[in-house]
Amino acid sequence: MTPDHDNDPTYKEVQDFMVPKSVGNPFLDKPGTFDAHMEARIADLGFSMCCVNVMMMKRYEMIKQPAPHNKGITFDKFKEHRGYAMPGYQPKHPKPGEDAPDGTILSIDGGAPSTLLAEAKKLALASGSEKVMICFDGVTCPFFRAYAAEDLYKVSHGVPMLHVYIREAEPCDEFDAGGMHCTTPLKMKRLIPVHKTEADRAEAAKDTKAFLEGFMGKGKVTMFMDTMDDNLEAIYEARPWRWYVIQAATGKIVDGTGLAPFNMAGKLRKIKAATA
After folding, report:
1. Assuming Cys at both sites, which of 39, 40, 41, 224 could form a disulfide with 71, CB separation 3.0 to 4.6 Å?
2. How many CB atoms lie within 10 A of CB 31?
3. Residue 136 forms beta bridges with which residues?
4. What is the pLDDT of the chain when averaged over all its residues?
5. What is the pLDDT of residues 194-223, one digit of tens each?
């Protein structure tokens, strides 16, 4: 998504883009936009060249599931998995200058539970940093794993990062949004369905930790996970992924990225300025 600027877009701009008829714009039945009367999408054409299909994105795992998942991507699926992008939704996430909400986070290795702010402050103290980043991650978002996570890391001035794995961004069995989970060069090496247990979420978090260590360095990723009631995801409106910067001593929000994955240039500028 690129509106008439390259800032991190507002909720309203994302909503207008994803449901164009809500502001009187025509709906073109293509990946990334939705309509109440749209046909269910089992497969999407990525792009064509000289009348030849160059990339077909197909939701093989969704087809195998019972109804309604076997229909593919529907408007109801969009509302369920990307509710923050529904026209009329008003953001409730913590804003710059406000207190960062706390909550339980779980170990991905079977250790004792902790809390978000306790672990964030511990990281900052160990690094001698006044700030800390809280990174809510979702590796099945193709943009996150293709470039977004690494690009944001590169502009973060070495500020320590607390990674928290949240509900799956694009689970192969219920919301393979772009069809990229199972097909295309961005397909997952291991398919990840909806997390049904803490063990499921821990496995996805461990995969993501290994992915992040590929550019952050072995042993340099601190990873926890959200509880199975998705408490922190809801408070921070983090789906499909979202990164915040906080002041370690006060727990105040410095800034954070908006709804992902839109206008990465704006998100990079935000994180670069917030971590400076």
Report:
1. 40
2. 15
3. 164, 242
4. 93
5. 999 999 999 999 999 999 999 999 999 999
Domain 11-275 has CATH 3.40.30.10: yes
> Among candidates 261, 271, 230, 269, which has minimal Cα distance to 32?
261
73 neighbors 57 (Cβ within 8 angstroms): no
Surface-to-core class of residue 260, CB atoms within 10 Å of its CB (0-12 exposed, 13-18 middle, 19+ buried):
buried
Q: Map out the domains of the chain as residue ranges.
A: 11-275
- Angle 263-92-223 from CA coordinates, rounded to 5°: 70
Report the distance separating Cα 76 and Cα 36, nearest Å.
Answer: 8
Report the alpha-carbon distance of residue 163 to residue 167 in Å, rounded: 13
* Distance from C-alpha of 155 to C-alpha of 152, rounded to nearest angstrom: 6
pLDDT 10s digits, 220-262? 999 999 999 999 999 999 999 999 999 999 999 999 999 999 9
Query: Could you say which DSSP state residue 25 is in?
Result: P
- For the chain, what is the total number of helices (H) and then of strands (E)? 9, 9
